[in-house]
Design goal:
Length: 117
């Protein structure tokens, strides 16, 4: 379901841009992992994990970003900072955009968790 995930990431990027963030990278990949979106929010670098759930009997979207996933995102973000800025002294945060479809797929419920971890 990679194409469905891609569409949610595209939707989240557009949604965040409407909220005033500037998307600077999508799907940053390295040997350590992947970061869905990297954005700038008033001078702060934001690493964004996009999560979507269509079946509510499994863990809700925000809860699916467990400790293991957080550690992987931190390591990948460190790699990005060292590659892009040659330093880790950059003010940044980790956000989660959780998308859970409602009755209408065109109007999903969105939960934006700033500084999620």
């Amino acid at each position: 379901m990679k194409s469905l995930g891609d569409s949610y990431e595209q939707w989240a990027a557009h949604w965040l841009e409407q909220k005033g963030l500037q998307i600077v990278s999508r799907n940053y990949r390295c040997k350590l992992g992947e970061i869905d979106l990297i954005a700038c929010d008033r001078g702060q670098l934001v690493f964004v994990e996009v999560r979507a759930r269509s079946i509510s009997r499994y863990a809700r979207a925000p809860e699916s970003v467990d400790q293991r996933k957080q550690d992987k995102l931190r390591r990948t973000a460190l790699h990005y900072l060292l590659q892009r800025y040659q330093t880790t002294a950059v003010h940044c945060r980790f956000d989660v955009v959780a998308i859970e479809p409602r009755q209408s797929p065109d109007n999903p419920a969105v939960r934006w968790i700033r500084s999620a971890f």
